[in-house]
Amino acid sequence: MSHLADVDPELARIIECERLRQVNGLELIASENLVSRAVLEAMGSIMTNKYAEGYPGKRYYGGCEFHDEAENLARDRVKQLFGAEHANVQPHSGTQANMAVYFSVMECGVDRMMSMSLTQGGHLSHGSPVSFSGKMYEVHQYGVDLATETLDYGVIAEQAKKVKPKVIVCGASAYPREIDFKAFQEIADEVDAYCMADIAHIAGLCAAGIHPNPTGVVDFVTSTTHKTLRGPRGGFILCGADRAQSIDKAIFPGMQGGPLMHTIAAKAVCFKEALEPSYKTYARQVVKNAQAMAAVLDEAGLRLVSGGTDNHLILIDLSNRGITGLEAENALGKAGITVNKNTIPNENRSPFVTSGLRIGTPAVTSRGMKEEEMRVVGAWITRVLADITNEKVIREVGLEVLAMASQYPLHPA
Ligand SMILES: *Cc1c(COP(=O)(O)O)cnc(C)c1O
């Protein structure tokens, strides 16, 4: 990055500080990952120089022949990865992917949708009142069964019969268990609704066959590319050929102008990497690592929401520990362990404080860490949480975190 250092030393310094933060700490935020050098190169390339409004073969600007090739590569690869008939790889984010599906089938101010509530694991873009989705549509939300802390499909089906929504959204940001997409589509079919599966968090697990893949099962699949899938920040939509045109129109010209072609190039690289056999091994390890850490936390007496995990994330309920999610996040952060506070089912604190902590293994698994390391990290987390004001413990754990991190580069060979 020598050019950046010459032109803008101020920003170069900030990026170097962030690089050191990533190198020296342990990233356990469930929605984050570490991309490959190849993805970084595509993203930082001259592909950013071009306007390419429209789609391959139908652009509103000249000189798009190579951009057509790049976008076609990305589309073909993601279709192959998930087994989809149609793919749109232009959404700038997961939220915009969801917006496009809503715009393609729902009328603003008229239609109803059903989705999982934010406090129980859903996402802002699934109809939260502070999101466009909650302002534009009448939203009815479902949660988990408070005893099992898992989805109760019978209850959701009953609610759908009463609500008669136009769209039923499934998929979550903080749900540690498998989601039955087929059950959701059946519920939707019964009430003549569309079913949209938002796999932003678990896309990598679905691609690798470790979590059931909703593609071809539900009407629409939306996702981000930057979580378990380990690509650049962005989104995509998968659907049947019959809905291709309305989805494409909803993205452009519906809500976006020019696509981020450097990001689409990097998505193509990400999808190629995810098609490799080594990616399956990675995704399997992500889940093994989450389960190994969950076992250590559970043995130490921490209460895990739903009792454990089937995927890449763990949700800890701290309410019986006398500490908040915010306090836990801050104490672990001081020790170099980055996690995020999160609401839990039956939450009684604000989203800025919360009673829970969300932990995920995609990023540390990308650095090559395995079960043994997860058991050690789990023990450190337990130690810090046992006495969050103990600065000596935080310092000691911090040094151990640094020593472990130094053995796992961000880009393992
Ligand atoms: C992260 C996430 C998104 C949105 O992603 P952005 O790219 O941040 O807009 C959408 N849905 C779910 C379930 C998510 O977890």
Outline of this structure?
This protein has 413 residues and is α/β, with parallel strands linked by helices. It is 44% helix and 13% strand.
Overall description:
With 413 residues, the protein is α/β, with parallel strands linked by helices. It has 2 domains: 40-274, Aspartate Aminotransferase, domain 2, CATH 3.40.640.10; 280-405, Aspartate Aminotransferase, domain 1. The protein is built from 16 helices and 15 strands. The strands form 4 sheets. Strands 4-10-9-8-7-5-6 form a 7-stranded mixed beta sheet, sandwiched between helices. A 4-stranded antiparallel beta sheet has the order 11-12-15-14. Helix 3 (37-43) runs antiparallel to helix 11. The longest helix has 23 residues, at 277-299. The radius of gyration is 21 Å and the shape is globular. The two termini are 20 Å apart. The structure holds pyridoxal-5'-phosphate.
Q: Under the CATH scheme, which class of the largest domain?
A: Alpha Beta
**CATH architecture identity of the largest domain:** 3-Layer(aba) Sandwich
Domain unit count? 2
Helix content: 40-55%
Task: Label the structural class.
Answer: alpha/beta
What CATH calls the topology of the largest domain is Aspartate Aminotransferase, domain 2
Distance between the termini: 20 Å
> Any idea what the CATH superfamily of the largest domain is called?
Type I PLP-dependent aspartate aminotransferase-like (Major domain)
Q: Please count the helical segments.
A: 16
Ligand set:
pyridoxal-5'-phosphate
What is the overall pLDDT average?
Answer: 97
Shape: globular
Uncertain segments: none
**Rg computed from alpha carbons, rounded to a whole number of angstroms:** 21 Å
